[in-house]
Amino acid sequence: MTKIRRAGGPGGAAERLRRAALILLSAVLLTAMAACSKDKKASTTTTSAPTTTSTAATTTTVGLTKDSVVLAADGLGAALPFGTNSAHTIQVLIQALGNPDKNTPLPAGQPCGATRRLQWSNFQVLVNEVVSTAGAGRPGFAGWFLGAPAATTLPFKTDKGITIGSTVAQLKAAYGTDVNVARGEQGPGYNITTATGIILGQLDALTDTGKVKTIQAGNYCGPG
């Protein structure tokens, strides 16, 4: 007669042990996989490239136009001070005023230390084109003169509005104690002392109704 083995017999115990071993092995594998995944996450580094914002430097160049010319003791305003390179001075003035009516080379050894005089209407500019100061004056833009004989005039003014035809009273009102009115070798004249130099010129009379005939600054060689 064939005996029937019950589940609670020795065979059933072996099966239970085998299953328990499989469960234990699965648990170990799962634990190992979890630890490995954790290590990978911990070792992952996210690097963000630094962001650099560059701002290009902006250079503002002050230009000269006919309307922006200012008769100053140290040149023609911020755009064209005395000492500016001669070629650049001439180029800037031609761009602002057009070609000069006269472009006159001066003989060597001029007392004003200039080598060339350019004229637009009644306005003259002197430059020294030498490359060294040795015995020839300071190189570059040397001086300006308003009031030269001409058929037309330019309405250039000082920073306080003085121009050809301004009265002595207007001179005094504009510059106060900084202006001196007196008779000189060439007749009635004036000079204005500023922080950057001297502006001077001739008058047709010393009285308050007298009028400005010429204005100049820097070095000058006539005619005027």
Structure commentary:
- By secondary structure, this protein is α+β, with helices and mostly antiparallel strands.
- The chain has helices spanning 10-43, 86-97, 168-175; strands at 70-71, 102-105, 116-120, 123-128, 140-146, 157-158, 179-184, 187-194, 197-202, 215-218.
- The protein has a five-stranded antiparallel sheet with strand order 2-3-4-5-10.
- A hairpin with a 2-residue loop joins strand 8 (187-194) and strand 9.
- The termini are far apart.
Quick structural overview:
By secondary structure, the protein is an alpha+beta fold. 24% of the residues lie in helices and 22% in strands.
- The helix-strand sequence is HEHEEEEEHEEEE
Number of strands: 10
Amino- and carboxy-terminal Cα gap? 152 Å
Oligomer: single chain
Strand order of the largest sheet: 2-3-4-5-10
Gyration radius, rounded: 46 Å
Q: What is the percent of helical residues?
A: 10-25%
Beta fraction: 15-25%
Secondary-structure class = alpha+beta
Poorly predicted regions: 1-10, 34-61
Largest sheet: 5 strands, antiparallel
SSE blueprint and pairings:
Layout: H1 10-43, E1 70-71, H2 86-97, E2 102-105, E3 116-120, E4 123-128, E5 140-146, E6 157-158, H3 168-175, E7 179-184, E8 187-194, E9 197-202, E10 215-218
Parallel strand pairs: 1-6
Antiparallel strand pairs: 2-3, 3-4, 4-5, 5-10, 7-8, 8-9
